[in-house]
Design goal:
14 helices; 18% helix; 643 residues
Amino acid sequence: RKRALRFIKAGDDGWVTEVRDNATGAIVVRVASGKAHGAPVVDDSLQQVSWADDELSCVFVAERHRPKAPPAWTPIGKGDDTERAANELRESLGEVYPDFSATTLVRLDVERRSVRDLLAPAFSIEYSAASPVLSHDGTTVTFVGYLHKPRRLGIAYCSSRTTKLFTLANVAAASADNGAAAAAAPLDRTFCRNVRCLTRHPKTDAIAAAVAAEDSLAHASCSALVLLPADAVRRAVAEPMRRTVLVDVVATPETAAGFPGLYLTSNSDLRWLDTETLLVNSVRRSAAVLYTVHVDVPIPHLVRVDADVLGVPTTNIDAFGTLRVLDACDDAVLATYSTTSRPPVVLFCPNATKPGHQTWTRVLDTRDLLPAPVAAIAGGFTAQLVETTDAALHGTQAHLHMHAPFVSGEPRRTIVFVHGGPHACDTSMFSRSHFFMLLSGFNLMSVNYGGSLGFGQAAVDALGGKAGTSDVNDCVGVVRHAQAQGLLPTDAKRLIVTGGSHGGFLTGHLTGQAPDMFCVAAMRNPVTNIASMKYETDIPDWCLFEAGAAEHDVAAMLAASPMAHVGKVKTPTLVAIGRSDLRVPPAQGLAWFNEVRANGNGVECRLLDYSGVGHALDSVVAEAEFNIVALLWFNKFCAPSTD
């Protein structure tokens, strides 16, 4: 693309959209939004700026314009589509999108210097628009609609949320001065429960897309890769879109090392490399990988990069690490690779469509930017994949990042990290927090328990109804397995557990169900009581699926919760909560803080309370302070190394 968009907040007057020349950075045109739209979406799970070939028009996603609220003393005011009381609740799209209630499609016309909402207000009563794909000639847009009824549910981190597929023709008429009424209503082209990650063919109007496992209730799942033919995309009829399945959902890999399926979560996970080849970001067991898929012979080919280019030991390449695309065009790929103990390296490949013959070169190694004392420590890190073979542990894996062993051979103090989700995967991507702990002298082991993505759809679904038992047993089992191999300290006084969200849920369970395994713990925005969370969270369906509970079965949800074991906790625990968390209500962490201190075991517990911060606790202040306080907390209770 020769042009890019930049969105600028213009105070009470809305937004200004700049069209900039990519080569020079010069502003081509600046357009004020006026009442055409509200805040643009910036997250690539929903946003996708799609240009016509002539780059004179594009479509993007933004919040529908909201009239100013009437004064608080006005009993009834007119809203976009219905009468609203001045202080009536406006539902949001949940965590990550607290200020978004209904997203729409906006068309920018460069020649007319105008922006227009493409969708009538009635559409936003039922759907939020996302992931638009504009036809090459700029006349038709295909997009995804997220359902609002019976209530708005959280979308972030929920790649299996129910969606519909729509096509809107004659978009130029819809963006004329007389507005959306000039265009027909979007045509419903839905053919499955969930479709997302739309990407347009470089030459035709065919679209590749991801489709979630049809019968799964998990919030993230294995995806099928489908192709929507150009003639089907342009067909202006309200009927299910014709499609071809290129790669189907994989229930169980044929072998332990076999292809486990594709797992796509955002629009940037799927791209065209050329007219015949797709590039897919996915996870494969405990690694984030790239696949190329040829549309005529749709067999996923794993993209491999030589160990000397990555700057890692040969044994680590397929075990774990994160290979992610930054950009791709005309057979060329710009990507990054990192691990928890290896800062990112930027890579370039000019011939990515040639499996087995790709040529990768290192463009930038961020290790070269580290201060000399830090680089000297980081250069001594090693890593190892810990694999379990016991069927009762559901194929649980962990990656262990280590300093050099002590003279005695005894492993260093180790932090056991359990990821959230639970249907996610720790691919050992570089993390400032984890790198900080490594530099501070700890080893770190990250666990992918049963139910993690990357091991087949059957593994994902198997955790449903068993959260709090199956995943807890997997974590305990892999710790004991690593201890038996001499990889972890056998003394609980040098073993730490930490995690956030569902990882905080598991941290609570582990300190309650295995109270003598760890000497100290830390949890971030933890789920501690599924029963109470169900009525406050933006994902109430998550509570039912993971606990295996009926709609109002409070007893079953409580039984699956860490709170059922809080009386047995003996481990000093640091808790951090974000007061603006819409996913896991901050009352969950506060309740744990109160109950642990009151359980009669004399347990020390601290609470870090961050105002204005959401589920990820990713503000500069929250991230920095939590890591420093956690380090001091760990050192307070964890026995020092003896060598």
